[in-house]
Specification:
By secondary structure, the protein is an alpha+beta fold. The chain contains four helices and eight strands; from the N terminus they run H-H-H-E-E-E-E-E-E-E-H-E. The longest helix is centred in the C-terminal third of the chain and has 10 residues.
Length: 197
């Protein structure tokens, strides 16, 4: 009984029932929004992370951070917090303040960099707060830029293009080592105690 599947179904092509069932459970990737493809589609954050990061000497930089309007905690004023910058890129910055802000907090930023004549204003979101155990003293945080004040993005692009700062080291995790496998040649030698003899 040779012949194509189309001939068996009256000349029209019908997808195979197994494929139809599979696709209803796991739709083809082309039919899914980008955010539904973990590991396949790159997020805006990953794309921003690919922008070159530059190390800033904290002694010659300053940052003023305040919770964005409507995002402060109840009972707390939108008091500005002053700190220092450690790294900057077109996608965000790493800085320190005397007290931590909560992760995902919307913030307004005023940034002064060494050799840059203009203050850079931006809005962003706290994406990381470094662990207190790993980082005693002033708390380091990372913010991802979401928008810039008028002319601020062009100012930062120009500044970074002038090569005032050195590239930050790559922060990729260290490779994991293979577990140690004990064999007869590497396992400790057992000896009989004097009382067992």
């Amino acid at each position: 009984m040779g012949g194509s599947g189309a001939a068996l179904h009256g000349g029209t092509h019908r997808p195979e029932p197994i494929r139809m069932a599979r696709d209803s459970i796991n739709p083809p990737a082309d039919d899914l929004p980008a955010h539904a493809l973990p590991g396949l589609a790159r997020s805006d954050a990953e794309e921003r992370r690919e922008t070159p990061r530059f190390t800033v000497d904290p002694m010659y930089s300053s940052v003023t951070v305040r919770p964005a309007a409507g995002h402060g905690r109840k009972g707390f004023a939108r008091r500005p917090l002053d700190g220092h910058v450690y790294e900057v890129s077109m996608g965000g910055l790493r800085f320190e303040l005397d007290r931590p802000l909560r992760r995902n907090a919307a913030v307004e930023i005023e940034l002064t960099l060494p050799g840059c004549e203009e203050e850079i204003r931006a809005n962003g979101r706290i994406v990381r707060v470094f662990d207190e155990l790993d980082d005693p003293g002033p708390r380091r945080m990372a913010v991802e830029f979401e928008s810039f004040g008028e002319g601020a993005k062009a100012t930062l692009e120009r500044y970074l293009a002038q090569k005032w700062l050195r590239r930050a080291p790559d922060q990729r995790p260290e490779p994991k080592t293979a577990p140690l496998i004990m064999t007869e040649s590497t396992s400790p030698v057992k000896t009989k105690s004097a009382s067992a003899a």
